[in-house]
Automatic annotation (TrEMBL), chain A:
Gene Ontology terms: cellular component: plasma membrane
Keyword annotations of the record: Antiport, Cell membrane, Membrane, Transmembrane, Transmembrane helix, Transport
Record field: transmembrane: 20-38, 50-66, 86-109, 121-142, 154-179, 211-231, 237-260, 272-298, 334-355, 435-454, 474-496
Family per record: Belongs to the NhaC Na(+)/H(+) (TC 2.A.35) antiporter family.
Intracellular or extracellular location(s): Cell membrane
Highest taxon in the source lineage: Archaea
A Pfam family reported for this protein in Swiss-Prot or TrEMBL: Na_H_antiporter
Domain (Na+/H+ antiporter NhaC-like C-terminal) ranges: 194-482
Organism of provenance: Haloplanus ruber
Full protein name: Na+/H+ antiporter NhaC family protein
UniProt keyword Transmembrane helix, yes or no: yes
InterPro entries assigned to the protein according to its UniProt record, in alphabetical order: Na/H_Antiport_NhaC-like_C (IPR018461), NhaC_Na-H+_Antiporter (IPR052180)
UniProtKB/TrEMBL annotation, chain B:
Domain of life assignment: Archaea
Residue ranges of domain DUF7513 in the record: 1-79
Organism: Haloplanus ruber
Record protein name field: DUF7513 domain-containing protein
InterPro entries in the cross-refs: DUF7513
Length: 512, 86
């Protein structure tokens, strides 16, 4: 990500003016947040496409309050939607979705179930182990959303089979995603936090351990305790579901290693996940874990003509099916993996558009001025404001990277007014961004995981609707997220980890 | 990246850092009080009477000339703007 891709500080003069003043530029986002709270929080409808409509309505209503030419408002929406950060999220979802569905087609869950019964990991310890492995994966691939999707698709069913509490297990997955999103050098939130605070990414990551490890130890202990308290009985289907395929699906650990290895080596997330995808497709076919048609299939209803001819061909024929009774469609894990994210992709594009409206309309600047004058009057209060402000923005905006970009200029201005150095500012910004994006039911990480979860009943015969974890119930169980916020609140009050500009200056920004 | 970076800042830092006359520091000018540039580091405030009046939010170098530990205030001699910072 280059510096030119990042938004500038709030402009002094608003390019778009609103009836009711600068604060009204927050109206589209405010309508969306209210919509999200009512839809997902109060009514319990986790439909991402519904949130898309909420954001669309917000943008339309916001336009009615624009003074003068509405074209400038429309231009700002376009400006926001074409920011690189939106594209980063889109790419991460599409690639991670295809990858997760493909290793699942290869029986990775069966392998995990086999391994956990062979190692005698009971329902009590499963959430704690899930937290550790999700944290490792997320740190490796740098996408918490990808981890939430992969683990919900792959590990969650295995844990449910063993009798682990679904809600606690979902919380453990989200906690691991928080850990990796916060710490990974390739995470988009890490990159945004470093670049917006003028700090080098390596230095930011190195300075982050003192907070992340404290929170992770507390979270791990909590999962061990809660896992024992909430464990249920293994499901009867465990033997048949896990015993059928045996350990062979575990070869997909190699696919995951391919992703982590290339990502840690500093390769782009597209390249890293593509390698994992290639390895997983090769393993599925070579070892007979899944036929080619399980990964990609063209289902035609026509019994004659080109479809029939192609169906007879040696290689191409394996991905073409003639099904007169079904509907004509494309299918397979590549297709379903990517398709599951289409609503979220539309949503993130609209949200970054709305955030740009608020930035250009001066809503952010108005809040910043008020904070400096009335709230952030000492360094302890300024840091507390930075922690709580980042937390609130991220708790209310679904996509955490978008929220982070929105709040980053505040953190920079508030921090610089007290000569708090770039590493510290980047850490406050990213930790609270990562944590709050995975806690509430409208958080992007929760939605991404839940989107994967609701597909499980179609994928596993034994998986019933009753086994789904309600996204509105998971918030108390995202232990690492809560501990991370708590660590930063205590750090703000006590000065733990605080560094000033004269103590140590951050180095120049580099990609990794 | 040196390993030392992993061990920086594992401390509880005061909100009023103390300096001594002669210390050379680099920090942001954080505002102006009665036309005098102020560098606020935590809750410590160092005034730079000889600095220009258009240095808000710029990174500057200065030498501490006086420092009062009691009320965490001091004055400094302006040395220059750090190049490359806006």
């Amino acid at each position: 990500m280059s510096e030119t891709d990042l938004p500038d500080d709030p402009p002094d003069e608003s390019r778009v003016e609103f009836y009711g003043g600068r604060v009204m530029s927050a109206l589209p986002l405010a309508i969306f947040i209210a919509w999200a709270i009512v839809q997902s929080g109060l009514l319990g409808i986790g439909d991402t496409s519904g949130l898309v409509i909420g954001m669309l309505v917000g943008l339309i209503v916001g336009m009615l309050f624009v003074k003068g030419n509405w074209k400038s408002y429309a231009d700002v929406i376009f400006e926001g939607m074409t920011q690189r950060v939106a594209a980063t999220a889109v790419v991460a979802w599409l690639w991670a979705g295809m990858f997760a569905d493909t290793i699942q087609a290869g029986g990775f869950v069966d392998g995990l179930v086999w391994a956990s019964s062979a190692a005698d990991v009971g329902a009590a310890l499963f959430p704690a182990l899930t937290f550790i492995f999700a944290a490792l994966l997320a740190t490796g691939i740098g996408t918490g959303y990808g981890t939430a999707v992969a683990f919900t698709s792959l590990v969650f069913p295995a844990g449910v089979l063993l009798g682990a509490d679904p809600v606690l297990l979902f919380g453990a997955i989200l906690s691991g995603a928080v850990f990796g999103d916060n710490l990974a050098p390739v995470s988009d939130t890490t990159i945004v936090s470093a670049v917006t605070q003028d700090a080098d990414i390596g230095g930011v990551v190195a300075s982050r351990f003192k907070y992340a490890l404290v929170a992770a130890v507390l979270a791990l202990a909590s999962y061990i305790v809660a896992g024992q308290a909430m464990a249920g009985e293994p499901l009867d289907v465990a033997a048949s579901a896990g015993g059928g395929a045996g350990p062979l699906g575990l070869v997909h650990l190699l696919s995951i290693l391919a992703v982590i290895g290339t990502a840690v080596a500093g390769r782009h997330i597209i390249e890293a996940v593509s390698w994992g995808l290639i390895v997983s497709v090769a393993l599925n076919i070579a070892l007979g874990l899944a036929p080619a048609s399980a990964m990609l299939v063209f289902r035609s209803t026509s019994e004659s003509g080109i479809a029939a001819t192609l169906n007879g061909l040696p290689v191409l024929g394996s991905v073409i099916e003639i099904a007169p009774d079904a509907s004509a469609t494309v299918g397979g894990s590549l297709y379903t993996g990517a398709l599951g994210f289409f609503p979220l992709i539309v949503l993130v594009l609209l949200i970054v558009g709305a955030a740009q409206v608020m930035r250009v309309g001066g809503g952010f600047a108005a809040i910043e001025e008020w904070l400096l004058e009335h709230v952030a009057t000492t360094v302890r209060r300024a840091e507390t404001t930075m922690v709580i402000g980042t937390a609130i923005v991220n708790a209310t905006i679904t996509i955490n990277t978008a929220a982070e970009i929105a709040i980053a200029p505040f953190i920079r201005t508030l921090g610089q007014r007290f000569n708090i150095n770039g590493y510290r500012r980047a850490n406050i910004l990213d930790a609270n961004t990562s944590a709050l994006g995975y806690i509430f039911p409208w958080g992007g990480g929760v939605l991404a995981g839940y989107a994967a979860m609701i597909q499980l009943p179609q994928q596993f015969d034994w998986f019933t609707e009753a086994m789904l974890a309600n996204p509105a119930a998971v918030w108390p169980y995202v232990f690492h997220g809560w501990f991370l916020v708590a660590v930063f609140l205590i750090a703000a009050w006590t000065g733990y980890g605080l560094e000033y500009v004269p103590d140590r200056q951050s180095e120049e920004v580099a990609r990794v | 990246m040196s390993l030392g970076k992993f061990f920086e800042g594992w401390t509880f830092r005061t909100n009023r850092p103390a300096y001594a006359a002669g210390d050379e520091l680099t920090a942001y000018v954080t505002g102006y009080a009665d036309g005098t540039a102020q560098v606020r580091i935590g809750d410590t405030i160092i005034a730079l009477p000889d600095a220009d009046d258009d240095l808000g939010d710029q990174l500057v170098r200065f030498r501490v000339t006086e420092f009062d530990d009691g009320d965490s205030t001091g004055t400094g001699e302006f040395l220059g703007v750090v190049e490359g910072d806006t």
